[in-house]
C-alpha cells in the first residue's frame, strides 16, 4: 500500500495554527502574571486591610481587634494571637498601631485575611522552637502587664520558665541551695507539704 500523502496546509490553516499557539501562550502567561500579582505582597493592600479594623484611627482597638480575630478564625485568648503580637512587636495588649501592623505584616508577607489565615500554623509552630518560645515568653511579660504594679518581676518570670524546663515533675532534682528565687523555693516547699498531706 503506498504511503499516504500529507495534506498540504492551506495558507489560512497555517495562520490559524500560529494564532492558536500564540493565544494559548498568552493565556498561560497572563494567568501566571495575574496569579503572581495576587500572591505578591502589596503595602497598599495591607494599609487598606488595616483600616478595615481601625476605621478612621491609626490604631486597631478592642472592637476592631474582636472583628479581626473573628475574621481570621481565632479566639482573642488563643496563644497564636500572642505570637502574632510578638511578630508585630505590639506594645499594648488589645491594640495594633499602624506602624506595628505595617512592619509586622510586611515581615510576614501578609496583606489579606486569607494570607494571614494560611500563616497561622506557621506562627503556632514557632512555639515548638525553644529559642523562639523563650523570646515569646519574655515578650509576654511586658506585653501582658497592664499597670505599673508588679506582682512578679521579669527576672522571676524568666526563672519560672527555666524551672519548668529543668526541674522534674516530682521536683526530685530541685536543689534548695541553688540560685532559684525565693518565690520558687516557697512554691517547692508548698508543693512538698501538699504531697505529704
TrEMBL record:
Residues 1-24 are annotated as: Disordered. One of its GO terms (molecular function) is cullin family protein binding. It comes from the Eukaryota. Residues 42-197 form the DCUN1 domain. GO terms for biological process: protein neddylation. Signal peptide: none annotated. InterPro entries: DCN-prot, EF-hand-dom_pair, PONY_dom. GO terms for cellular component: ubiquitin ligase complex. This is DCN1-like protein. It comes from Heterocephalus glaber (Naked mole rat). The lineage of its organism: Eukaryota, Metazoa, Chordata, Craniata, Vertebrata. The gene is Dcun1d4.
Amino acid at each position: 500500500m503506498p504511503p499516504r500523502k500529507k495534506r498540504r496546509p492551506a495558507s489560512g490553516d497555517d495562520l490559524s495554527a500560529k494564532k492558536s499557539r500564540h493565544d494559548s501562550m498568552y493565556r498561560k502567561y497572563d494567568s501566571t502574571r495575574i496569579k503572581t500579582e495576587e500572591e505578591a505582597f502589596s503595602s497598599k493592600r495591607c494599609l487598606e486591610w488595616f483600616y478595615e479594623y481601625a476605621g478612621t484611627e491609626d490604631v486597631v482597638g478592642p472592637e476592631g481587634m474582636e472583628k479581626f480575630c473573628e475574621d481570621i478564625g481565632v479566639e482573642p485568648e488563643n496563644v497564636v494571637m500572642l505570637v502574632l503580637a510578638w511578630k508585630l512587636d505590639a506594645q499594648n495588649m488589645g491594640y495594633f498601631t499602624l506602624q506595628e501592623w505595617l512592619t509586622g505584616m510586611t515581615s510576614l508577607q501578609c496583606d489579606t485575611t486569607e494570607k494571614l489565615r494560611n500563616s497561622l500554623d506557621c506562627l503556632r509552630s514557632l512555639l515548638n522552637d525553644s529559642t523562639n518560645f523563650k523570646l515569646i515568653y519574655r515578650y509576654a511579660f511586658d506585653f501582658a502587664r497592664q499597670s505599673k504594679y508588679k506582682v512578679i518581676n521579669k527576672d522571676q518570670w524568666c526563672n519560672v520558665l527555666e524551672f519548668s524546663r529543668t526541674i522534674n515533675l516530682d521536683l526530685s532534682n530541685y536543689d534548695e541551695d541553688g540560685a532559684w528565687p525565693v518565690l520558687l523555693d516557697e512554691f517547692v516547699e508548698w508543693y512538698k507539704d501538699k504531697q505529704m498531706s
